[in-house]
Amino acid sequence: MTFDVAVKRIYEPASPADGQRVLVDRIWPRGVRKADAALTLWLKDIAPSDELRKWFGHEPARWAGFQQRYRDELDGNGETVAQLRALLGKGRVTLLYGAHDEMHNNAVALADYLRETG
Description:
Layout: E1 5-9, E2 20-23, H1 34-37, E3 41-42, H2 50-56, H3 63-75, H4 78-88, E4 93-97, H5 106-117
Parallel strand pairs: 1-4, 2-3, 2-4
């Protein structure tokens, strides 16, 4: 099955093209009002563990290691992954994140994981 999954910074304005908007960070992003976020769901439990997040520290040199460790965490988090897949079964889902780095963040890694594990 091919999922329609997109990735977007939560600081960008919401759009009807986003479909269902799911925040995938454990911590609420600074300066964002809940009403402005237009969330379908805040799925804290799918975010990387605090230990993994702190280890990664958004260091691009650790990206490959972060992706593998996060995949291992996702493999052990079947119920939450299934919840997200259920939303994907209903149409487009945009994974929202707060990080500054648009290439190396948990939402990008999660989208890749969802696409590869179908």
